[in-house]
From TrEMBL:
<dbReference type="InterPro" id="IPR051531">
    <property type="entry name" value="N-acetyltransferase"/>
</dbReference>
<feature type="domain" description="N-acetyltransferase">
    <location>
        <begin position="5"/>
        <end position="172"/>
    </location>
</feature>
<dbReference type="InterPro" id="IPR016181">
    <property type="entry name" value="Acyl_CoA_acyltransferase"/>
</dbReference>
<dbReference type="GO" id="GO:0016747">
    <property type="term" value="F:acyltransferase activity, transferring groups other than amino-acyl groups"/>
</dbReference>
<dbReference type="InterPro" id="IPR000182">
    <property type="entry name" value="GNAT_dom"/>
</dbReference>
<protein>
    <recommendedName>
        <fullName>N-acetyltransferase domain-containing protein</fullName>
    </recommendedName>
</protein>
<dbReference type="Pfam" id="PF13302">
    <property type="entry name" value="Acetyltransf_3"/>
</dbReference>
Length: 173
Protein backbone atom coordinates (compact mmCIF):
# COMPACT_ATOMS: atom_id res chain seq x y z
CA UNK A 1 0.00 0.00 0.00
CA UNK A 2 1.21 3.51 -0.80
CA UNK A 3 -0.05 6.80 0.54
CA UNK A 4 -3.00 6.91 -1.86
CA UNK A 5 -3.20 3.48 -3.45
CA UNK A 6 -3.67 -0.19 -2.66
CA UNK A 7 -3.24 -3.22 -4.95
CA UNK A 8 -5.49 -6.28 -4.90
CA UNK A 9 -6.63 -9.03 -7.24
CA UNK A 10 -9.69 -8.11 -9.31
CA UNK A 11 -12.94 -10.03 -8.73
CA UNK A 12 -16.18 -10.41 -10.68
CA UNK A 13 -17.49 -7.41 -8.73
CA UNK A 14 -15.05 -5.26 -10.75
CA UNK A 15 -16.60 -6.31 -14.08
CA UNK A 16 -18.45 -3.04 -14.64
CA UNK A 17 -15.25 -1.03 -14.14
CA UNK A 18 -13.25 -3.36 -16.40
CA UNK A 19 -15.93 -3.26 -19.09
CA UNK A 20 -16.04 0.54 -18.99
CA UNK A 21 -12.26 0.94 -19.06
CA UNK A 22 -11.38 -1.48 -21.87
CA UNK A 23 -14.26 -0.28 -24.05
CA UNK A 24 -12.40 3.03 -24.49
CA UNK A 25 -10.08 3.49 -27.47
CA UNK A 26 -7.96 5.97 -25.53
CA UNK A 27 -7.13 3.15 -23.11
CA UNK A 28 -6.54 0.37 -25.66
CA UNK A 29 -4.92 2.27 -28.54
CA UNK A 30 -1.37 1.64 -27.35
CA UNK A 31 -1.97 -1.78 -25.79
CA UNK A 32 -1.08 -4.57 -28.23
CA UNK A 33 -0.21 -4.38 -31.89
CA UNK A 34 -3.77 -4.35 -33.27
CA UNK A 35 -6.83 -2.15 -32.78
CA UNK A 36 -9.23 -3.58 -30.21
CA UNK A 37 -11.77 -2.72 -27.55
CA UNK A 38 -13.82 -4.99 -25.28
CA UNK A 39 -17.38 -3.83 -24.80
CA UNK A 40 -19.27 -6.76 -23.24
CA UNK A 41 -19.67 -7.96 -19.65
CA UNK A 42 -18.56 -11.42 -20.77
CA UNK A 43 -15.27 -10.04 -22.10
CA UNK A 44 -14.75 -8.16 -18.85
CA UNK A 45 -15.32 -11.31 -16.77
CA UNK A 46 -12.95 -13.29 -18.99
CA UNK A 47 -10.31 -10.57 -18.64
CA UNK A 48 -10.68 -10.61 -14.84
CA UNK A 49 -10.26 -14.39 -14.87
CA UNK A 50 -7.10 -14.14 -17.04
CA UNK A 51 -5.68 -11.44 -14.80
CA UNK A 52 -6.30 -13.55 -11.69
CA UNK A 53 -4.56 -16.52 -13.31
CA UNK A 54 -1.43 -14.42 -13.91
CA UNK A 55 -0.60 -14.47 -10.21
CA UNK A 56 2.75 -16.17 -9.62
CA UNK A 57 6.00 -15.65 -7.77
CA UNK A 58 6.82 -12.02 -8.50
CA UNK A 59 4.30 -11.86 -11.35
CA UNK A 60 0.66 -10.88 -11.65
CA UNK A 61 -1.91 -8.31 -12.67
CA UNK A 62 -3.35 -6.27 -9.82
CA UNK A 63 -6.24 -3.86 -9.64
CA UNK A 64 -5.24 -0.45 -8.31
CA UNK A 65 -7.75 1.15 -5.96
CA UNK A 66 -7.71 4.32 -3.90
CA UNK A 67 -7.14 3.93 -0.18
CA UNK A 68 -9.68 6.55 0.85
CA UNK A 69 -12.73 5.43 -1.16
CA UNK A 70 -11.69 1.95 -2.41
CA UNK A 71 -12.46 3.11 -5.95
CA UNK A 72 -10.78 1.20 -8.78
CA UNK A 73 -8.51 3.35 -10.96
CA UNK A 74 -6.83 0.76 -13.21
CA UNK A 75 -4.39 -2.12 -13.40
CA UNK A 76 -0.69 -2.63 -12.88
CA UNK A 77 1.10 -5.72 -14.13
CA UNK A 78 4.35 -7.59 -13.95
CA UNK A 79 4.81 -10.63 -16.20
CA UNK A 80 7.30 -12.43 -18.44
CA UNK A 81 7.56 -10.52 -21.73
CA UNK A 82 7.58 -12.47 -25.00
CA UNK A 83 10.76 -12.14 -27.04
CA UNK A 84 10.53 -11.47 -30.79
CA UNK A 85 11.11 -14.55 -32.97
CA UNK A 86 14.56 -13.39 -34.05
CA UNK A 87 15.87 -13.25 -30.45
CA UNK A 88 17.59 -16.58 -29.82
CA UNK A 89 19.37 -18.25 -26.94
CA UNK A 90 18.06 -16.18 -24.05
CA UNK A 91 19.61 -17.19 -20.73
CA UNK A 92 16.55 -16.09 -18.74
CA UNK A 93 13.20 -14.43 -19.26
CA UNK A 94 12.72 -10.69 -18.90
CA UNK A 95 9.95 -9.35 -16.68
CA UNK A 96 7.77 -6.55 -18.01
CA UNK A 97 6.08 -3.92 -15.91
CA UNK A 98 2.98 -2.17 -17.31
CA UNK A 99 0.12 0.14 -16.38
CA UNK A 100 -3.45 0.66 -17.62
CA UNK A 101 -5.45 3.44 -15.98
CA UNK A 102 -9.04 4.55 -16.40
CA UNK A 103 -9.09 7.98 -18.12
CA UNK A 104 -10.98 9.48 -15.19
CA UNK A 105 -7.93 8.66 -13.06
CA UNK A 106 -5.33 10.08 -15.46
CA UNK A 107 -3.25 13.08 -14.49
CA UNK A 108 -2.77 12.27 -10.79
CA UNK A 109 0.48 10.35 -10.92
CA UNK A 110 -1.27 7.13 -9.91
CA UNK A 111 0.53 4.94 -12.48
CA UNK A 112 4.01 5.77 -11.17
CA UNK A 113 2.85 5.49 -7.55
CA UNK A 114 1.37 2.02 -8.16
CA UNK A 115 4.41 1.00 -10.20
CA UNK A 116 6.69 1.87 -7.27
CA UNK A 117 4.83 -0.76 -5.24
CA UNK A 118 5.56 -3.35 -7.93
CA UNK A 119 9.21 -2.36 -8.17
CA UNK A 120 9.53 -3.08 -4.44
CA UNK A 121 7.77 -6.40 -5.01
CA UNK A 122 10.12 -7.18 -7.93
CA UNK A 123 13.15 -6.54 -5.72
CA UNK A 124 11.76 -8.86 -3.03
CA UNK A 125 11.08 -11.53 -5.69
CA UNK A 126 14.71 -11.28 -6.84
CA UNK A 127 14.09 -10.09 -10.39
CA UNK A 128 17.40 -8.70 -11.72
CA UNK A 129 15.70 -6.08 -13.87
CA UNK A 130 12.34 -4.86 -15.20
CA UNK A 131 11.58 -3.80 -18.74
CA UNK A 132 8.80 -1.58 -20.08
CA UNK A 133 7.89 -1.15 -23.73
CA UNK A 134 5.71 1.59 -25.17
CA UNK A 135 4.51 2.84 -28.50
CA UNK A 136 6.61 5.83 -29.58
CA UNK A 137 3.50 8.03 -29.52
CA UNK A 138 2.58 7.05 -25.95
CA UNK A 139 4.35 9.96 -24.25
CA UNK A 140 2.37 9.63 -21.00
CA UNK A 141 3.53 6.03 -20.56
CA UNK A 142 7.13 6.95 -21.36
CA UNK A 143 6.98 9.65 -18.70
CA UNK A 144 5.73 7.12 -16.16
CA UNK A 145 8.69 4.85 -16.99
CA UNK A 146 11.11 7.76 -16.68
CA UNK A 147 9.59 8.84 -13.38
CA UNK A 148 10.16 5.32 -12.09
CA UNK A 149 13.86 5.76 -12.79
CA UNK A 150 13.87 3.46 -15.81
CA UNK A 151 16.55 4.14 -18.38
CA UNK A 152 15.41 4.81 -21.95
CA UNK A 153 17.16 2.51 -24.43
CA UNK A 154 15.52 3.96 -27.55
CA UNK A 155 13.68 1.88 -30.16
CA UNK A 156 13.98 -1.90 -29.85
CA UNK A 157 12.68 -4.90 -31.82
CA UNK A 158 13.51 -7.32 -29.03
CA UNK A 159 9.96 -7.97 -27.73
CA UNK A 160 6.46 -8.75 -29.04
CA UNK A 161 7.70 -9.03 -32.65
CA UNK A 162 7.37 -5.28 -33.10
CA UNK A 163 9.29 -2.03 -32.64
CA UNK A 164 8.83 -0.26 -29.27
CA UNK A 165 10.50 2.31 -27.08
CA UNK A 166 12.37 0.22 -24.51
CA UNK A 167 12.93 1.20 -20.86
CA UNK A 168 15.00 -0.83 -18.38
CA UNK A 169 15.25 -0.67 -14.61
CA UNK A 170 18.29 -2.47 -13.19
CA UNK A 171 17.34 -3.88 -9.78
CA UNK A 172 20.76 -5.27 -8.86
CA UNK A 173 22.32 -1.92 -8.07
C1 LIG B 1 0.03 5.68 -19.46
C2 LIG B 1 -0.93 6.10 -18.36
C3 LIG B 1 -1.02 4.99 -17.32
C4 LIG B 1 -0.39 7.37 -17.72
O1 LIG B 1 -1.29 7.76 -16.71
P1 LIG B 1 -1.40 9.26 -16.22
O2 LIG B 1 -2.34 9.29 -15.09
O3 LIG B 1 -1.66 10.15 -17.39
O4 LIG B 1 0.06 9.48 -15.70
P2 LIG B 1 0.57 10.78 -14.97
O5 LIG B 1 -0.53 11.62 -14.52
O6 LIG B 1 1.58 10.32 -13.98
O7 LIG B 1 1.28 11.55 -16.17
C5 LIG B 1 2.49 11.11 -16.68
C6 LIG B 1 3.14 12.27 -17.43
O8 LIG B 1 2.68 12.24 -18.79
C7 LIG B 1 2.19 13.53 -19.15
N1 LIG B 1 1.16 13.31 -20.16
C8 LIG B 1 -0.06 12.76 -19.96
N2 LIG B 1 -0.70 12.67 -21.13
C9 LIG B 1 0.14 13.17 -22.08
C10 LIG B 1 0.06 13.36 -23.48
N3 LIG B 1 -1.03 13.00 -24.17
N4 LIG B 1 1.11 13.91 -24.12
C11 LIG B 1 2.22 14.26 -23.44
N5 LIG B 1 2.37 14.10 -22.12
C12 LIG B 1 1.33 13.56 -21.45
C13 LIG B 1 1.75 14.13 -17.87
O9 LIG B 1 1.73 15.54 -17.94
C14 LIG B 1 2.81 13.65 -16.90
O10 LIG B 1 3.98 14.44 -17.09
P3 LIG B 1 5.02 14.70 -15.90
O11 LIG B 1 5.63 13.36 -15.54
O12 LIG B 1 6.00 15.61 -16.52
O13 LIG B 1 4.22 15.28 -14.78
C15 LIG B 1 -2.33 6.39 -18.91
O14 LIG B 1 -2.23 7.37 -19.87
C16 LIG B 1 -3.02 5.16 -19.49
O15 LIG B 1 -3.54 4.33 -18.77
N6 LIG B 1 -3.07 5.05 -20.82
C17 LIG B 1 -3.79 3.98 -21.46
C18 LIG B 1 -3.13 2.64 -21.29
C19 LIG B 1 -1.70 2.66 -21.78
O16 LIG B 1 -1.41 3.17 -22.84
N7 LIG B 1 -0.83 2.02 -20.99
C20 LIG B 1 0.58 1.93 -21.30
C21 LIG B 1 0.85 0.93 -22.35
S1 LIG B 1 2.60 0.90 -22.69
Amino acid sequence: MSERLRLRLPTEHDAEFVQDMYSRVEVTQFIGAHDWVETTAEEALNRIQRYRERLGRGTGVWLIETVDTASPVGFILMKPIPFSAHVKGQPEEDIEIGWHLHPEAWGSGYAAEAAELLVAHARRAGHPRLVAVTNSENIASQKVATRLGMSHQGLSERYYGTTCELFILDLRS
